[in-house]
Amino acid sequence: MAFLIDGNNLIGHISPHYLRDPRSKYSLVGRLIAFQRINQTKILLVFDGPPDTELENIHTHFKKIKIFFPSPGQKADHIIKDILSKWKNKRRFFIVSSDRELKNFARALGFKVLTCQEFNKELKKTLKEYKKIQELQKEDTPLSPLEIDLWGGIFKGDHE
Questions:
Q1: What is the DSSP string of 69-136?
Q2: What pTM, to 2 d.p., does this model score?
């Protein structure tokens, strides 16, 4: 399964005031890294604006996530349309955007479209389930003899 995500569109849907915050891209990428690891998917993420070399190079650490920025004077839509035009396997490939023109373009080529609202709902659900699993899998580490003595001393003081 793979997702081609209109990054600024998704950020604007999650929280419109985040569009002005340069850290919002990093926040979204962090959530998508967790989503990708849980679902073992491929993620292609396209942002508007000037390139951020740290984000563009994330592919060196996370092989299944690739981030694109448009050339000066271009928009993310151009990159998204270009990727869609070249992508051969349309099965299990989703475009995530609420941009009407992009959705229509993707559908005309036979791709499945998820609105930002639909994808954000799935993202939240997946991360919440993962957090529950992580909590259940936490290992209890046994107390050391020193910790037992310290706790014993604390509780002895309460009873006397």
A1: -PPTT--HHHHHHHHHHH----TTEEEE---HHHHHHHHHTT-EEE-HHHHHHHHHHHHHHHHHHHHH
A2: 0.79
